[in-house]
C-alpha cells in the first residue's frame, strides 16, 4: 500500500538591502524509485531564476539557480506530491535466511561501497569504542536487528536539542555533549555502523509526522536527516535514531550523500557592499492526500 503525501517546503532569506545573488544549488526533488514515486513537483523562486538541472556524483537530482537581478529577499518554495511505499526490512520475501552479524561484503560489493566504509573522522575511534562498549550492549546476531538495536540505543541515551547554526557535530562531539540534532544523531549512527564494518550514507528529506514512531515525533516542520546502511541481501535500509525508526513511510527521502556537508537542501552565497544578512526562516508541511 502507498501513502500519498504533499510536501510544502518554504525557505526565505532576508537582507538589509539589495544584494547580488550568486548561483544557488537546490537539492529538493527526490528521484523516483520502487519505494517513492514523484507524481507532481513544483518549484517557485523569487526573484526569478534560471534553472539548470543535473545529477550529482551520488545520482541526486540537483537544480542550479542563477539570478539576473538584485534583491533584498530570496524565497524558494517547493511543492511535491509523492507516493511512498514501504516494506518491512525484518521480513524477507520467501522467508529466506536473514543476514547474520558479523558478516563480510563480497569483494565486488566492498569495492562499490568503499566510499561509505571506514570512519569519516578516524580520530573519533577511541571515543566511539568506549561509548559503544558502555551503552550498546544488546547486540543481536542478525544484521538488521543489530542495527535496529544500535538505532534505539542512540535514541535512548542521547538528548535531542534543536540548533539553528549550520553544520553537523562529529561523533566525538555528540558523545561528549550527549545531545544533538537529527543530523548529529544520523552522523553518529553512521560512524558507529562503519566502526562495525557496515557501509553507511547520509540521508536528507522530510518526516511525515503522522507516520512516525512511538511518542511525539521530532523533526517535523523542517527538513529531517537520518542514515542508510547497506545490508547484504537486503540493500540500503533507512534508520532514524532521532525517532527510533527503521524504514517505513514516515521517512521521505530527497537525497543521499557520503557526508552531511554534501546534503544541504539549499546552498549558495551573495555579495553586496556593506550588505547584512538579516535571517533565515524555513517551514515544512507534510500532509496526506487522497
SSE layout and pairing:
Elements: E1 2-21, E2 24-29, E3 36-46, E4 49-55, E5 61-67, E6 71-85, H1 107-113, H2 125-135, H3 143-157, E7 159-160, H4 171-177, E8 179-180, H5 182-195, E9 199-207, E10 224-231, E11 235-240, E12 245-246, E13 251-257, E14 266-267, E15 270-271, E16 277-288
Parallel strand pairs: 7-8
Antiparallel strand pairs: 1-6, 1-15, 1-16, 2-5, 2-14, 3-6, 4-5, 9-10, 9-13, 10-11, 11-12
Helix pairs in contact: 3-5, 4-5
Keyphrases for this structure?
290 residues, five-stranded antiparallel sheet, alpha+beta, single chain, 16 strands
Please give a structural write-up.
- With 290 residues, the chain is α+β, with helices and mostly antiparallel strands.
- Helices cover 19% and strands 41% of the residues.
- It has helices spanning 107-113, 125-135, 143-157, 171-177, 182-195, and strands spanning 2-21, 24-29, 36-46, 49-55, 61-67, 71-85, 159-160, 179-180, 199-207, 224-231, 235-240, 245-246, 251-257, 266-267, 270-271, 277-288.
- Strands 1, 3, 6, 15 and 16 form a five-stranded antiparallel β-sheet that branches. A five-stranded antiparallel β-sheet has the order 12-11-10-9-13, covered by helices on one side.
- Helix 3 crosses helix 5 (182-195) and helix 4 (171-177) packs across helix 5.
Amino acid at each position: 500500500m502507498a501513502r500519498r503525501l504533499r510536501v510544502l517546503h518554504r525557505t526565505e532569506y532576508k537582507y538589509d538591502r539589495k544584494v547580488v545573488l550568486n548561483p544557488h544549488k537546490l537539492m529538493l526533488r527526490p528521484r523516483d524509485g520502487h519505494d517513492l514515486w514523484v507524481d507532481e513537483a513544483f518549484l517557485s523562486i523569487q526573484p526569478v531564476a534560471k534553472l539548470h538541472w543535473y545529477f550529482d556524483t551520488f545520482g541526486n537530482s540537483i537544480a542550479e539557480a542563477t539570478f539576473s537581478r538584485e534583491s533584498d529577499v530570496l524565497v524558494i518554495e517547493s511543492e511535491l506530491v509523492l507516493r511512498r511505499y514501504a516494506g518491512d526490512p525484518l521480513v524477507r520475501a520467501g522467508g529466506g535466511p536473514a543476514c547474520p552479524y558479523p558478516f563480510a561484503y563480497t569483494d565486488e560489493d566492498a569495492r562499490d561501497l568503499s566510499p561509505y566504509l571506514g570512519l569519516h573522522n578516524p580520530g573519533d575511534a577511541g571515543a566511539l569504542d568506549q561509548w559503544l562498549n558502555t551503552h550498546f550492549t544488546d547486540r543481536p546476531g542478525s544484521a538488521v536487528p543489530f542495527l535496529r538495536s544500535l538505532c534505539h540505543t542512540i535514541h535512548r541515551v542521547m538528548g535531542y536539542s534543536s540548533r539553528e547554526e549550520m553544520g553537523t557535530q562529529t561523533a566525538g562531539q555528540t558523545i561528549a555533549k550527549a545531545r544533538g540534532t537529527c543530523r548529529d544523531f544520523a552522523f553518529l549512527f553512521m560512524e558507529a555502523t562503519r566502526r562495525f564494518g557496515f557501509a553507511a550514507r547520509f540521508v536528507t528529506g522530510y518526516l511525515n509526522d503522522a507516520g512516525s514512531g512511538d511518542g511525539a515525533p521530532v523533526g517535523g516542520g523542517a527538513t529531517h536527516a537520518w542514515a542508510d546502511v547497506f545490508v547484504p541481501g537486503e540493500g540500503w535500509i533507512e534508520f532514524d535514531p532521532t525517532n527510533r525508526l527503521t524504514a517505513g513511510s514516515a521517512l521521505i527521502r530527497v537525497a543521499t550523500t557520503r557526508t552531511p556537508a554534501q546534503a544541504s537542501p539549499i546552498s549558495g552565497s551573495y555579495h553586496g557592499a556593506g550588505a547584512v544578512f538579516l535571517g533565515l526562516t524555513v517551514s515544512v508541511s507534510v500532509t496526506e492526500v487522497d
